[in-house]
């Protein structure tokens, strides 16, 4: 091993340690304009509008989205769900996961760049920061300047604006778990409960810290998505990429200069693509896990190319195969597989929701005795029914049984169950012995409301008895 090679290993280790333990350098992200910036702003304001506005919308006198944990009720767009309806949440999570895989396979980190809460709130906080402190050059000058009255005045104003917005965010979040109008009334009368107060401040300061201070650190060091996205992309995935064949060698030149005449590529090495990057990377270094796919570098590079009189697209959405001049296909079989699975699961979820019965009945047969024979010679089985009313109103239920000739519930059965309550109903079911053809017979319990609501459920059970000879 040569002396140069011997020295290189410690040098590399030192560089790695320096990268891991280096003090964070504050990023002064430059504002950018362009088609992708407009799409990001549209996504940001749309998502924030939904988040802050949805809690205030009522539907038939009920908050349209409310997770009422004490009552174990989850009201979502007119539907009332209970912990027993966990299967619907599971289906929704499956759809969301598959959609994430599909969009990642299609165009990389679209979720991170346009819809991730960390990105959305960070963009909003950066917008408020620019509003108070000015553009990136003014912010940098302010931080490097003297700590005078103007410095503390501007910084205090910014943090007060951030703090108000953070507390509003925390208030809105809690408003999805406590009716937001009641929460607002309690806030105005200084009558908030201790838990509501705690969670408003908790989520408020969490938002303040993540979007105001940590920002790109959350994406780079805390978010696991960047680490496993490579398993979902391939050489035909659209990624934000710099074209080195066209751009290199880089170098400054006057506007309108033909790059070939000076032996240069189209990149003028202005560094603006680094200045607008919210994670501070240089896209010209190739694909990096820190890239969140926001496309800010595309907008600013296209603007520079336009001013220089060059063709746009030096940085663009493209595939690895396309950059290498190979044949590429964006619409690949794996995308159609994702779309097919998502469509099937979505249709199944939709069908389950529209046919959902807000009633659940567990039928437990008494096992202390297989069967008994009463004084009239009828064979009896004893059951215990647990009736769960998952509707928002209380109901009277009538229970009948069928499946064997002459089968009936002894004395009839009816029960009233309040909304969200579980009621136990013991029943004796009797059958003439001549109707029993085997030791175990399938029967059905019919549970229906008698108040005109139209709720009904049919549940199977087993009836045991002697075989008629």
Structural features, described:
This protein has 469 residues and is of the alpha+beta class. Among the domains are: 234-323, no CATH class; 359-464, Immunoglobulin-like (Sandwich). Helices cover 44% and strands 18% of the residues. It is built from 16 helices and 16 strands. The chain has helices spanning 3-21, 35-54, 86-107, 110-115, 117-133, 136-144, 149-174, 180-188, 194-214, 216-222, 225-228, 244-247, 272-275, 296-308, 320-323, 333-354, and strands spanning 58-59, 62-63, 65-68, 73-76, 79-81, 239-242, 315-318, 359-365, 372-373, 379-389, 395-402, 408-409, 414-417, 422-431, 440-449, 456-464. The strands form five sheets. Strands 8, 9, 10, 12 and 14 form a five-stranded antiparallel sheet that branches. Strands 13-11-15-16 form a four-stranded antiparallel sheet, with no helix packed on it. Strands 3-4-5 form a three-stranded antiparallel sheet, with no helix packed on it. A hairpin with a 4-residue loop joins strand 3 and strand 4 (73-76). It is elongated and about 110 Å long.
